[in-house]
Amino acid sequence: MQKEDLKIAVIRIEGTNCEEETVMAFRNLGVFSEAVHLKQFYSDMIRDSEQRSLTDYNCIVFPGGFSAGDYVRAGAVFSARIKSVLRDDLRDFINSGYPVLGICNGFQILAELGALPGFDEDKPVGKQEMALGINDSNRFECRPSLLKHENRGKCVFTKALEKEIVMFPVAHAEGKVIFPAGKEEDYIDRLRKNDQIVFRYVDAGGNYAGYPWNPNGSIYNIAGLCNVRGNVLGLMPHPERVFFDYYRKNEIGDGRTIFESVIEYLLSL
Amino acid sequence: MFSKVNVPFELYEIKILDADDGRLLKISQELGLALSLDEMRRIQDYFHKKGRNPYDIEIQSIAQAWSEHCCYKSSKYYLKKYLFGISADYVISAIEEDAGVAEFDEEYAYVVALESHNHPSAIEPYGGAATGIGGILRDVLCMGAQPIALVDPLFFGNPDTSEDEIPAGTKHPLYLLSGVVSGIRDYGNRVGIPTVSGLLFFDESYLTNCIVNVGCVGIARKNRIIHSRAGNAGDIFILAGGLTGRDGIHGVTFASAELDEKSEELRSAVQLGNPIIKEPIIHACLEIVEKELLTGMKDLGGGGLSCVVGEMALSAGFGAEVHLEKVLLKEENMAPWEIWVSESQERMMVTVEPKHVDEVLYIFQKWDVPATIIGSVTAEKTLRVFHHGYKIYEMDIEFVTSGVEYCRQYASLKETVDETDSTAPPESYEEALLEILKHPNVASKEWVIRQYDHEVRASTFLRPLQGRLNLEGHGDASIIKPTISSKGLAITVAVNPWLIKKNPYWGTASAFDELVRNLTAVNSTPHSFADCLNFGNPEKEKRMGEFVDCVEALGWMARGMKIPCLSGNVSFYNETPYGSIAPTPTLLGIGIIEDIKNAITSDFKKRRNAIVLVGETRKEFGGSVYSRIFRMNGKVPRTSPEKLKNYSNTLLESFREFDVKSCHDLSEGGLAVALAEMCIASGMGARINLSEMKDETYTKLFSESNTRWLTEVSERELEDYISFFKSRNLTASSIGNTGGDVLEFTDGKFSFEIPLEEAEKAWRTGLTRFTGW
Q: Contact, B735 vs B624, CB < 8 A?
């Protein structure tokens, strides 16, 4: 595939609010990307020129924000709408090996959809097996977080990541990774075995640490994980906010590699 | 007094033609108009000429338009006299509209608005503060601008107020604080606009009347700026956004009177906000702006439809015709006057040429934003309102919208302030410093700041917290990079009500000084400001005196510095039977930094670097934290635009000439606090020697003299750096070095030290000991 053929959709509904910077991250790397309203995939009132299909794209991103206000539970309404109008398309999309990224609210949506942890390769969208619960601090917090990259090569979004520890900021109220009670150890074992763990929270010394370094109380300090195939990544921290250096002293920020990696992957298809 | 009109909906004729004075006042009271006898008489005269009585909707409409909130009747005269008209060639629009506009670069302009949401927040803190954010976003949006940053200066009663000191009808400051912060958080975070600056200040005068100010900055393409006025006769009014309900009826008249213990019953005056309606409105409006489909746009705020239609038509020199039954309602059976004055949130009014109506409605529909045609612009300057075919309103727009203006009596406090110095050294310097660091007005505001997303949109370059990851300190200003160029906008907020309460004139001059200090500290050039002037009841001479003193000082400083006031808001009647608030002229400052790479933060960068105090220290303790804690009297810090300009320009020049590693302004708590903050943010101590300076040790440490900064330079550059200032006849003193894990102060033979850890603990827990973490 050629770079100029790539098309990346960042899917929005009311209340998603990180779509513009996510679109910009891809555009800054010379790739076509656009924010697409979910309605453009199914609604009759949309004009032909603005109608879209998932097959128009090579990669989709569920961006950060508060989709539909997140009043029920983070990501619940957005994922319910996807299930009702886009479920099969999304399953085929993932089955075909195309990458899907969920950042913050997007991670919550992928968890609600059962796309993560995504143990079953044949059912990339299915039963919900994890949740992103309310932070231990019991409120929204915006702070920097340090992430240790622990993926051994499966995740298509971090293949080009050379640094061992990166800084992506977090900003959420519901980001605590929770697995079904009693099955936590089993889940973590499987995730490790399958090379599905991508990022874990660490402190300034690179050690797994508690609050505030683990900002939400996630089990096993998990900040981001991918499905068993490696083409779906969900993470709470925001790589698009550090596309440029956090302190802007130089042009390259820690988050940039996430976007570069997936482009490289798409070009290799 | 009233008689029902024979129409199939609720409409009353108000019998004012033959009413005597007592009856006129009674009408004003019973209808909740908050109009004075003079104003009622003017209305009576007008309708005498028309030869008929007004309908309820007409008189309600006048009450909205003539409220203090909408027409600035008490403040306009003095604002014009002192503050307006400071020109700069980069100003695109100042004062005239919902937000001010100035040039950012060749292609873009930035937009600024700042206003109060005090009374609603005192009654219903969560909803009041949230709708405050909603309103200020619309003010910026209606100029055609993308909102890029929010600020929120907040003022409450003392956090340690005991329950039995709380007057009836008043809520505890901590309850209000937590409600207001949650309201701003849940609204601001949801709409996805970063909250990058603010203020949190406690004083007993805010106990019965908290102050919630909200500001917003936006960015627009210069050739896409939209004005708050209709285009041409024949243009169509489209009302878009939330539905209209009974919430927020009489919000402006409520805001234009003192609160009392019964105010709680006026909850209907507080609107309900919905960020998830707002967020798509922003997208839809900006898409319509981008496609150049509008002739005008204005948000519905105070006074609702009654104000927006009149103002948009009048400022374009036209009239309007509105059909009220077209307005989409939340509830049935609303009387026409209720529809007309409702302040339901999340509504925008746009005027569109008939040929673009379909396209505009399609875009709103695409974003799931309800929108309907409600009327049109007419050639003659009359406003007519119809409801189900019946004409229920016909008045000259100029009579209604131009409002009234007063030149109120005032008593200046300039000559009467007692500033005799009664300060003395503390018994223990260690304890004094720790006491100051843990004062909630000084201590870390991290508890608030972290609850706001200050990085969404990925354009925040300097954050409100600066320094070590997760162990940051306070910065002086935040910087946003609004476009793809490397140019940045520095945003800061300043006011110290203690200084102003003590001496309105010099306290306000000090607030302006701080504004400029904050902007220059991060290496940005001060460019413009907006003000939100919060005061007590203007009908009282002393309150009005505070106002006039403040505005005069603000005008003097701004004019001398040639920094234009782009936008402003006056909030009077922040007063209850328990007293008035400290005069609170909140300032929002905007600076420009040509290349964000050159921004300077407040945390020390390297051990064994030199610390330099730029500026002159005098014994100025009036309104200082030191004098408040130890109950002493003193002189409020002085300043002048000439001196401030000299110092700030030279400081900015020094940033170009030298490699200045960090900079922080000196404000509350003086030198000692600024230094401690720089140390805490970096995790390194400092060794300070004050012997070179004159005055007593406690003055050197705790005086709050204006126009001062601390900077960090390498030992190698130190000598040249100091001479750079001296050669311009300005004061800069080498006062010590970074490093170590204590704050050590020496002055001649006297010395004391505090472990950094202890200072940090006092500062970090000063607020959370009240709020919890």
A: no
pLDDT tens-digit profile of B109-135? 999 999 999 988 888 999 999 989 999
3-state secondary structure of B659: coil
Number of domains in chain A: 1
* Total number of domains constituting chain B: 2
The number of C-alpha atoms within 13 Å of B354 and in the hemisphere containing its C-beta is: 5
Q: Is A104 a catalytic residue?
A: yes
Q: Could you give the C-alpha distances from B286 to A173, B105, B138, B293, B367, in angstroms and in order? A: 29, 20, 12, 10, 12
φ and ψ of A209, to 5 deg: -140, 165
B518-563 pLDDT tens trace = 999 999 999 999 999 999 999 999 999 999 999 999 999 999 999 9
Q: Which of B190, B451, B455 sits opposite A139 (nearest CB)?
A: B451
Residue B172 token pair: 């505890």
Of B65, B86, B106, the residue at which a domain comes to its end is B65
CA dihedral B439, B432, B617, B660 (to 10 degrees): -70
Distance CA B687, CA B678 (A): 13
The ipTM (two decimal places) reads 0.95
The enclosing domain of A83 has a CATH number of 3.40.50.880
Helix (H, G, I), strand (E, B) or coil at B535: coil
Q: Which residues of B touch A (CB under 8 A)?
A: 185, 189-192, 275-277, 279-280, 362, 365-368, 449-459, 461, 468-470, 481, 596-597, 599, 773
Q: Which of A18, A104, A155, A226 is catalytic?
A: A104
Print the domain residue range for B701: 602-773
Interchain contact, A66 vs B189, CB within 8 Å: yes
User: pTM of the entire structure?
Assistant: 0.95
Which residue among the candidates B48, B117, B439, B454 is catalytic per the annotation? B117
DSSP H or E segment with residue B512:
helix B504-521
- Mean pLDDT over residues A98-119, rounded? 97
Compute the distance between CA of residue A183 and CA of residue B744 in angstroms, rounded to an integer.
54
Contact between chains at B365 and A45 (C-beta distance less than 8 A): yes
In a domain, B245, yes or no: no
